[in-house]
UniProtKB/TrEMBL annotation:
<dbReference type="GO" id="GO:0005634">
    <property type="term" value="C:nucleus"/>
</dbReference>
<dbReference type="GO" id="GO:0016787">
    <property type="term" value="F:hydrolase activity"/>
</dbReference>
<keyword id="KW-0540">Nuclease</keyword>
<dbReference type="GO" id="GO:0003729">
    <property type="term" value="F:mRNA binding"/>
</dbReference>
<comment type="similarity">
    <text>Belongs to the ZC3H12 family.</text>
</comment>
<dbReference type="InterPro" id="IPR051101">
    <property type="entry name" value="ZC3H12/N4BP1_RNase_Reg"/>
</dbReference>
<dbReference type="InterPro" id="IPR021869">
    <property type="entry name" value="RNase_Zc3h12_NYN"/>
</dbReference>
<dbReference type="GO" id="GO:0008270">
    <property type="term" value="F:zinc ion binding"/>
</dbReference>
<dbReference type="Pfam" id="PF18039">
    <property type="entry name" value="UBA_6"/>
</dbReference>
<dbReference type="GO" id="GO:0004521">
    <property type="term" value="F:RNA endonuclease activity"/>
</dbReference>
<dbReference type="GO" id="GO:0036464">
    <property type="term" value="C:cytoplasmic ribonucleoprotein granule"/>
</dbReference>
<dbReference type="InterPro" id="IPR000571">
    <property type="entry name" value="Znf_CCCH"/>
</dbReference>
<keyword id="KW-0378">Hydrolase</keyword>
<keyword id="KW-0460">Magnesium</keyword>
<keyword id="KW-0863">Zinc-finger</keyword>
<dbReference type="InterPro" id="IPR040546">
    <property type="entry name" value="Rege-1_UBA-like"/>
</dbReference>
<protein>
    <submittedName>
        <fullName>ZC12D ribonuclease</fullName>
    </submittedName>
</protein>
Amino acid sequence: VHQSKLDFFCKLGYGKQDICKVLENLGQEALEDDVLKELIRMGSKPQALENQAQPSQLKLVARGSCSTTLGLKWLGEDEGDASSSLRPIVIDGSNVAMSHGNKEVFSCWGIQLAVDWFRERGHTYIKVFVPLWRKEPPRQDSPIADQHILGELEKQSILVYTPSRKVKGKRVVCYDDRYIVKVAYEKDGVIVSNDHYRDLQNENPEWKWFIEQRLLMYSFVSNRFMPPDDPLGRHGPTLSNFLSKKPVLPEKKWQPCPYGKKCTYGNKCKFYHPERPHQAQLSVADELRAKTKVPLAPGKEKERCQCSP
C-alpha cells in the first residue's frame, strides 16, 4: 500500500521525501485526498509547476501567424507602441541654431525648441549633429547663445558632435552635412533643415531622391518651431503622414458645387449636389468611357454585322 501510494503521487510530480513525510504523519491507511491536502498545506509543488515558475532564458516560437507577436513580446517590444510607427528624426543643429539666431548668433535655444516639438509628437529617435568646435568658448566673429543646452542634450544622448581638430593653428572641420544625410538615409528617417544639400545630391543619386522626399523645412515664429503642414507641396502628403512610417490615406470627399441649386450643368456637373442623391459621381469623360465599354445587345450586334461591308 505504501509503495502504490508513493508511485501514485510521484506520477503527479511530487517529491519522494515530501510524500514519505506525509505518510509517516498520517499513517499508511490515510486516504489519497488527505495525503494530497497535506502536501498542498506543506507547500509542496509538482515539478511541472516549478519548471513553469522559473523563467526560461530561451523560448522557441512556432511558425505561424502568432510567431511575430510572441517574438515582439519576448523581445520587450510592444506592437501597439505609437513611437514604432514614427520615423527617426535627424536635425541639422547648425542650420536650426543659426536660423533661430537670425543668421547672426548660434542660438542653442532653437535646437531645444525643435527637439521638444518632436518629443511632444512621440518621436523616440532624435539626433542632432553639431560641429565639435561649438564647444569652445564663443568669440566675437562666432557668438553662441545658451551654450549650456548643448551639454544637456549631449547627456541625454541626443546631440552628437562631428569631429574637428587644429593642425598648425588652423581648424580642420569634418563635413557635418555628410553625417546628417548618411544617418538619416540608413535609419530611413527625416532630415530637419532648410539646407538643400545640392552638393551631396550630385554626389550620390540615392541620396538625391532621399533628400528630395525626406527633407523637412521649418520656420521660427516668436520662439515657436513650425514645420509646414504640407512638406512636399499642396498635392503631397500631410505632415502627420510625412513623419509616420504607415501613412493614413484620407477618405475621398466630393467637393460641393459652388453654384448650388442654380447650377445649369445638370448631370454633367462634376461637383457634388446634395439635392441630387442619385447623381452619378463621374466626370463627363469618365461617363463617356463607361458607355463605350457597355456591350451591345445580341440583336443590335447582328444588324451591325450585316450593315458592315
